[in-house]
Amino acid sequence: MNPEKKKLTQEEKILIVDDEEIMRSFLLDVFVDEGYDLDLAANGEEALEKISQNKYQLIITDIRMPGVDGTEVLRKAKEVNPKTEVIIITGYATPQIKQKCQRLGAAYYIAKPFQINQIRALVNKLVRGKLG
Amino acid sequence: MKIPNLQLGLKIKFVLIISFLILFTSIVLSGFLIQKQSDLIQSELEKRGRSLVKNLAYNSEYGVLIENEKLLATLIEGLIREEDVIYTQIFDREGKVLAQMDQRKFHREKDLDSGIITLALNGEGFFGEYHFTHEGRFGFYDLAYSIKTTKVEMPKEELGVIFDKDMDLKRLEKKIGVARIGLSLNTMRNEISRMKNIVVLLTALVVAIAILLTFALVNLIVKPVDKLVRATERIAKGDLSQMVEVDRKDEIGKLAQAFNQMTTSLLESRKQIEDYSRNLERKVEERTKELKEAQSLLVQTEKMAAVGQLAAGVAHELNNPLGGILGYSQFAIEKISSKTPQDLTSDDVSTYTQYLRDIECQSQRCKTIVQNLLKFARASVEDSFEPLDLNTVLQDTLVFTRHQLDMAKVKLVLELADSLPHIMGSSNQLQQVCTNIILNALHAMPQGGVLRIATSVKEFDSQRLTQIEFTDTGYGINQENLSKIFEPFYTTKKPGEGTGLGLSVSYGIIRDHNGEILVESEMGKGTTFRVVIPVAETQKHKKMSDKSKELPVFEKGR
């Protein structure tokens, strides 16, 4: 493990929002391995709660979720802290939602299934300002 | 069938009427003939008697004048030899018998009446009288004629005229006696009875022949008519194969010919009709098949449209496990390739094993999703009905539609009955119906809302029914459109957004399940769809589909 990755800062806290258990566990495994501090939310409501309580540098959120969906999470995150970067990961992307997310200030919009290097590179770039 | 009786009746009627006419005519004619002949025979007898008695009178003139009884006896003798002369008498002018001969056998005891002699002596001409004895069995004809002598006075004798045609000789006649004969009536009677016999015999013969001829004639007419009648009967029974065989050139022959023509054309037209109906049957069969194909195509098309609408859900459903699989496999490859086998700790092995388990599990999930999708998309033609419960159908449906609901911010409230009795049906088809109704509810709530789905068991008219009730909080359907929503191609959506077939296909599917789709709606409040299907054990196909027409809408909002 890269010792550099272990230098955790408050700024490097990441929130992962997905109703899919497998996605949460995968992203957790990958980014814990990268040395990030992670919070998990299984739905939109939980995410909103965590956003209002914690300061996240990056939020990775699914779009389609029962109840509060990804766009709401995005909106709320940007509202609470416009500096917070948001990556949207979705199983089914429509141009409308894509545009909406762009408008709301999402950094990236990634369709599932995605390459591990891709998400890792984007997260590293957004959080640590460098390309993995 | 009265036709044979009619034929018999016709024949007998003909024969009876004609026979009666012949008999009547013959009897009248022969009676008349007999009367005429009898009269003729009688007058012949009288004529003969007159001629005989007149001759006797003339021939007796001389004998009477000279009163020579012997001469007179000779005359009488000659006469009595005549077969039918039974007695002869010659009287003088005083009425005294000069000569007589009597051969009477049966009425000797009766003295001959002298009245007729007096009449003959005082009058002119013949005096005849019939006499009957033995109760009329025997009879004779008594005939008298005066014997006259003519004294020729010759007033002009001196003038030398011997004979003057103007001379009235009769005036000089003088009655000198009476000749009398009796003629037996037996001969006449015999003759008459012989004649009668002949007439009666001839009449009988004529009548018999006439009746036989009538029979033949009637047969001649009736037989072919009978044939025609029988042929008509056969035709009435539908047998057009036989022709009427009447080999005649008269009206009946023509009738038979016309009849045969009629039969032939009937046969032809029947053949045509049969051909036509066979053709029609085949065409109907073809069309039915085409229609069925079109219908199943329609169901399939509509299903594919639903699949298209579900694509988002499906993609989401598939991409999540795929994301896990792809991610974990790449992650595992990275981890493992960065290590040599010697570096591997037991912790590493258990971690990687967990990754592989996750991959396996998610692959399994993908497989199930794909299978479900294929099952749903599969053409339903080969679907067979099997016992199933609507809760399972509903849950299978929600696998793909739930995401749609989530995305549309529609809150799903499920109120499933604890256990539902099985119905007979096609899970695939029923999923299609549920999907369609759910998607419709979604479209009715573009700003989100609540979709309540409840299953229950109902009792109606001693039938157990299972019901799924879908209640949305959408904008509702107005009364005008409510009556049209099950019509094919009826849609309120923009062209390209809906096929307009969803509910009509659903309606067809539920009817196939002997069930009903009922709808009620209130503008601005929402719509309730109820799918009602009879429970398997009480399912009486016919009864249900009859009753279902008058099924009332179940009471709103239990």
Helical run tally of chain B: 11
**CATH class of chain A, please?**
Alpha Beta
Assign the CATH topology of the domain at 3-152 and 167-200 in chain B.
Answer: Beta-Lactamase
As a whole number of angstroms, the C-alpha radius of gyration of chain A is 13 Å
End-to-end span of chain A in angstroms?
14 Å
Largest sheet of chain A: 5 strands, parallel
Overall 3D geometry of chain B? rod-shaped
Q: In which range does the helix fraction of chain B lie?
A: 55-70%
Give the DSSP E fraction of chain B (strand runs of 2 or more residues): 15-25%
- Strand pairing plus helix content of chain A: what structural class? alpha/beta
Per the CATH scheme, the topology name of chain A is Rossmann fold
Backbone shape of chain A: globular
Strand content of chain A: 15-25%
Order of helices and strands of chain A: EHEHEHEHEH
Derived from helix and strand composition plus strand pairing, the structural class of chain B reads alpha+beta
By DSSP (H or I, 4+ residues per run), the number of helices of chain A equals 5
Q: Distance between termini of chain B?
A: 67 Å
Instruction: Estimate the mean pLDDT confidence of chain A.
Output: 86
Pair with the most extensive interface?
A: A-B, 27 and 29 residues
What would CATH call the class of the domain at 3-152 and 167-200 in chain B?
Alpha Beta
